[in-house]
Each structure stands twice: as structure tokens, then as C-alpha cells.
């Protein structure tokens, strides 16, 4: 099956949905969640949670075999807005940072090292932005996010998060190296998910080699060789690479019974004004080491294409343009990957990843979150934690340094939406 069919709202997925839901919940209860007779911190389950899970459970399995089920419903993502971050990382509720894709030569010889020393302004990655830009976007677009029917909920969404966090969830059943920490806060019926840096990731960031630092620049330099600011000009590789700048799409979609609202950075769009509307006109840019041996090809399929597929499938970005570079950072070839064809490309690979496992795990994790994070309070964080070869566990933190919903957001969301407020 071509999994992009599931994006098509008219596909058979719609009809199969209720049967799906039943099957999924049974599976979640019986196999992927361990039952514990002595819970330690599963407190005060809501009525609906108590009804759906008769046993108290507090871990979630990530084993692949539990998620080899039918592909869950994933609605075609719809762009409901966008925002831009400028060279100083300032937020704008518009598309001023949109760039246009200019197709390069198939063998372009782009020098990705050019400008690393003298024309590079790197974003300060010590600043943890958490969900802040998304919260700004939500406040600026409150009216179009309100539930259609009167509700105690403020937003027509079950989950608000970054696309990058969802990518991590999709690849979890296949990840063997890096664990994650995801903080969840339930506020007025919506679950906000924000990543917390793990100790291992922090150490890695501190101990990066000079070579690694430079290679991180290469991806941005490739963008400069292939993108323009307007539809009429050509790329300008003589300029400064400033990684503060970003254009982000905000999309709404649904994974089984989870309504999702998330944002992801988009590299550029098709410059043809007759191209399909967003997100179908968007292009994701990547660089990767050139492939010289069968072993390298196999690794590329098994690891890289999994990450590329997951990241672009989520917001419905249909194309990934890859620049393959040599050891010296020279792009020797360029290839376009159609996201809908990636899963068939890898089918010949022995023991390879499966899109259905990725999507079912993500779906079951979100169900798990809904059952665990019962207390609706912006000062409470449910911290979900995962290490490779382990189950997902969680801990609860009240008024801790993990809290990430800003006071300005809570204040504005709870006052102005109140009909008595003037
Ligand atoms: O952990 C994250 N993903 C966080 C992202 C934490 C806090 C903030 N952000 C925000 C920033 O506002 C950024 O503009 O991330 C935005 C991008 O979010 P995303 O699309 O959800 O992230 P992801 O899919 O992981 O990465 C997309 C691109 C990357 O391109 P490649 O081709 O390497 O995947 O966003 C960039 C990077 O260029 N990027 C980041 N930019 C700023 N902060 C970050 C980050 N932490 N991670 C990746
Ligand atoms: Ca990219």
C-alpha cells in the first residue's frame, strides 16, 4: 500500500476508522502497555480513563512487533498558518522568511565549506525556546483555533507540539542510540508537548568536535546554494548564512482520534505560482555523505531515509531534495526523493523499518499521554522518558523547572476567551 493514500480524506481509511479504533485500543491495553499491580504515581484517573483501562498501567512498550497493525488514519495535513523568525530570531506572524527552490545541476560541485569562517552567524543553541514561538502563533491566531461548538476547551486540538518532537516519536521503535524526554502539560483540555534535553544530548553538544561543528554548517550552506528570497532572482552563495532565520508552517491534522496542531520549519517552496497550495508545494532540503558501497547504501536506506520520511510525511511535504557530498564537503550529486515513494524504495532492504510501525507507535503514545496526564494544570508537567531498549516511563512534577507554558500565554488564553471579560 502506498501510505500516502491515507492522506487522502476520500480514501477507504475513513470507512475503516471505527473498526480501527477498536482494534487499536485493544492492542494498546493487552500488549503494548504493561500492567502493574502496584502503581506508584498513577493518581486520580479521570472517569473516562478509568473506564477505558481497567488495569492501572504506567509504562508503554516500544517493541516493533506491537505496532505491526493496519496503518492508522492520518488525515491530509492542512496548513492553517505560518510564521517567520528573522535574523535576530524575532517572531512575525507571516511568511516573510519564505524562500523559493531553484533546481540545481545534477552534479553541481557546490563547496559547502565556503563561508564557514567569515560568513556564518550561528543561532545560540544554548537558548531553549521550548514551545514559545508556537504559543505566540496561537495567541495571534486564537480566533481560528476556537472549537466550533461551545466547550471548556480553548483550542480545537488535543495536542500542540513541534513537528520535530513527533518525528522523534515516529522513529522511536527503530532508534537504538538516542533516548528522549518529553514534557507534557494539560491545559484547558489540550496537551502541550515540549522536549527536554537529555543529559546525553547535553554532553554531546558540549563535546562536539570542530569537524562536527563545521558539518552542521554544511546543511545550511546547501540551502543557500538552492534557495532565493524571491521568485525572480538566483541563489546568492556570497551572502551570510544566518541560522536564526526560519520559516515555519503550522498544520492541523488527525492521527486516529488525536487532533494535532503542530509546526515545522520549511526550507523552501516551488517557485511556480501554479504549484499546488501548501504544504504540497514545499521542498525539504538535506545533505548526506555520498554513497559508494552497498553497505553505505543499506545504512542510508535503514537510518537516513527513515528520518527523512518521518519528518516530511508528518506535515505532508511531498519532496526531499538531497545533496550528496564528499568528505571535503563538495556536493557531487543531487537527487529528489518523493516522500510517497520512500517506503517502497526500502522494501528490498532486509529487516527494514515500516511506516505503519512508526505511525501506530506515535498514536499509542498519544493515547498513553491522554490517560496518564489527567490533571489539567499549567503548573504540572508529566515527564515522559525513554531510553533505547526500554519502555516509556513517566514522572510527575509540580511547579518545577520543567514547567514550560508561559505566564503570558496562560493569562491571555484564560482572560480574553472568557465571555464575561471586557
Ligand atoms: O527540538 C526542537 N525541534 C526544537 C525546535 C526545540 C525548540 C524550538 N524549535 C524550533 C525552532 O523555532 C525552529 O525554527 O524548531 C524549529 C524547527 O522545528 P521542527 O521543524 O519541529 O524541527 P525539526 O524537524 O527537528 O528540524 C527542522 C529544521 C532542521 O533542518 P534539518 O534538515 O536538519 O532537519 O529545523 C532546524 C534544522 O535546520 N532545527 C532547529 N532550529 C532551531 N532550533 C532546531 C532547534 N532546536 N532543530 C532543528
Ligand atoms: Ca532541511
UniProtKB/TrEMBL annotation:
Annotated spans, Disordered:
1-55
Q: Where in the cell is it found?
A: Nucleus
Segments of skewed composition (Low complexity): 7-16
Needed co-factor(s): Mg(2+)
The GO biological-process annotations, alphabetized, read as: NAD-cap decapping; nuclear-transcribed mRNA catabolic process
> Iron: is it a keyword of this entry?
no
Q: Which reaction does it catalyse?
A: a 5'-end CoA-ribonucleoside in mRNA + H2O = 3'-dephospho-CoA + a 5'-end phospho-ribonucleoside in mRNA + H(+); a 5'-end NAD(+)-phospho-ribonucleoside in snoRNA + H2O = a 5'-end phospho-ribonucleoside in snoRNA + NAD(+) + H(+); a 5'-end FAD-phospho-ribonucleoside in mRNA + H2O = a 5'-end phospho-ribonucleoside in mRNA + FAD + H(+)
- Stretches of Polar residues bias are at 28-55
The RAI1-like domain extends over 75-409
Q: Which GO terms describe its cellular component?
A: cytosol; nucleus
Q: What keywords were assigned to this record? A: Hydrolase, Magnesium, Metal-binding, Nuclease, Nucleotide-binding, Nucleus, RNA-binding
InterPro entries xref list: RAI1, RAI1-like_fam
Tell me, what is one Gene Ontology molecular-function annotation carried by this entry?
RNA binding
Q: What is its EC number?
A: 3.6.1.-
The record's cofactor note says: Binds 2 magnesium ions.
What's this protein's function? Decapping enzyme for NAD-capped RNAs: specifically hydrolyzes the nicotinamide adenine dinucleotide (NAD) cap from a subset of RNAs by removing the entire NAD moiety from the 5'-end of an NAD-capped RNA.
Q: Which PANTHER family match?
A: DECAPPING AND EXORIBONUCLEASE PROTEIN (PTHR12395:SF9), DOM-3 RELATED (PTHR12395)
UniProt lists the family membership as follows: Belongs to the DXO/Dom3Z family.
Q: What is this protein called?
A: Decapping nuclease
